[in-house]
Amino acid sequence: MANSDLAQLIEAVDRLAASGFTMGAEWQAVHDICQRHEGEQPFDWGHALCHRIEGDDWNADYWYRRAGKARGTGTMADEWSAMRTELSAKA
Question: Which of 22, 42, 46, 52 has the greatest number of C-beta atoms within 10 Å?
Answer without folding.
Answer: 46
